[in-house]
Structures are given as structure tokens and as C-alpha cells.
Amino acid sequence: MGTEETDQEASAKPRWWTKRLAIVFAAIASLIVLGLIAFFVYASAYYHDLDTEDVYQISTTEIPVTQGSNYLAFGDTDSYSALVFYPGAKVEFSAYSPLMRELAAKGHLCVVVEMPFNFAFLDSDAARDVMNQFPLVSRWWIGGHSLGGAIAADYVAAHPAEFEGLLLLGSYSASDLSATDLSVCSIYGSNDLVLNMDSLVTSRGFMPNEYSERIIEGGNHAY
Predict the structure, then answer these.
(1) Which end of the chain has less neighbouring CB within 10 Å, N or C?
(2) Long-range pairs for 46-49 at CB < 8 Å and ≥24 separation?
(3) Residue 14: predicted pLDDT
(4) What is the DSSP letter of 108?
(5) Rounded to the nearest 5°, which phi and psi values hold at 91?
(6) Each residue of 189-209: pLDDT tens digit?
């Protein structure tokens, strides 16, 4: 009798642990699903391009506009120099069309990249694919706004030989660029309440010799 009870207890233990593991895995799966739902809800509330008529995306003889699978290119695709630009977090990439168009008018090819869910960290290597699309460009710059600038800085830190410099708009670099030959230009507004100024000050110690700052008086985080 005692042996039968012992055998029953022994056979019950695996079933008990199996049920417990199933509960744990179900709880983890539920948390993952809830996290994904929360992310999608958060990401869906992004800053839309106000140019609903796509006026700034109209291609002209002076400034041709090329649309790729994940980018908008402004200017001559055979240009000698070019800028690949990462948008800020939760900002529709086409919202930067006016800026890209203005820079292209100065003779540079300017390419703004569309990021997954409007977050540059989800495709930090996007510059590589874009650059491969324009093999005739000899000199590349990389830049970005806000989070996009920080991610662009991370990318150029890993590939400094491929770029002439870095353009930061309302942003800063968390990567050390001090040993590179890059030219870095940081532009931000005097009324920017989003940019972490303490981090910006700290990042100055990461900058190469050719570093400059431009402050837009009265400007905020968007312009």
C-alpha cells in the first residue's frame, strides 16, 4: 500500500511541474503580447507630415525628387556630395522634405530615410542601404534630428572612414568621435525644451577637433 502511494506521488510531481511551467510560459507570453500592443499604440501616435498635398515632394528640373522603397532623395543623384538623414522619433520622414529640398538647392543630394514605426533605432544601419543606391556619390555626410541624430552618430562612430561628417539637429552624440577626422556640426534652438542640455554638454568631450555649434535664437525642438 505504501509503495503504491509513493508511486502515485512520484507520477504526480511531473504533472504538477508541467502545469506550473505552462502557467509561467503563458504569463510571459501575455506580458510580451501586452508589451507589443502598448508599443504599437504608442508608435501609432506620431507626428504627421503637414504637407498633405506633397508640394515639397514635387520633382522639378532644378530639384529632382526620387522615391525609393524607404527613402526620399532630393537633388541630382549624380551629385558629388550627399547627406543621408535620420528622422526624429515618431516623426513621419516626409515631414523633413522642406529641409531636404532647401539643402538640395545648394547642390547636394539629400536623402531622408523612412524608419520602421518612425524609430531610427529599429534600422540603425539604414544609411548603408541608401548609400549603395547612389554609387556615383563620392562624399557622404550623415545626420539626423533628435533621436535620429543620436542613432546617426552611433552609425558614423562605427564607420568613420565612410563619411565626411555628421550633422546633429536638436541632438547629441553618445558615441566618442574624438579620435576621428570627421567634421561635426550641431544645431539647436535656444528654446529647445526637449534636448537634454546636460547630455549635450557632456557630448562635447566626445567631439573631434572640427566641431561647431549653431544656436537658432528663439528656435525650439522642431525648428
Answers:
(1) N
(2) 46/90, 46/91, 46/92, 46/118, 47/90, 47/91, 47/92, 47/95, 48/92, 48/95, 49/92, 49/94, 49/95, 49/97
(3) 64
(4) -
(5) -115, 130
(6) 999 999 999 999 999 999 999
Q: How far is CA 170 from CA 39, 88, 117, 153, 185, in A?
A: 24, 9, 20, 13, 11
CA distance 188 to 195: 8
**Do 143 and 85 contact (CB within 8 A), yes or no?**
yes
Q: Where are the alpha helices (DSSP H) in 105-208?
A: 126-132, 147-158, 197-203
DSSP 80: S
What's the grid cell of residue 15?
504533472
C-alpha cell at 112: 531622408
Scan for cell 557632456, then name that residue: 202
The Cα diameter of the chain in Å comes to: 96
Report CA torsion sign: 196, 198, 199, 203.
positive
Region label for 64, one of left (φ > 0), alpha (ψ between -120 and 50) or beta (otherwise)? beta
Show the low-confidence residues of the chain (pLDDT under 70).
1-17, 22, 24-27, 29-31, 33-46
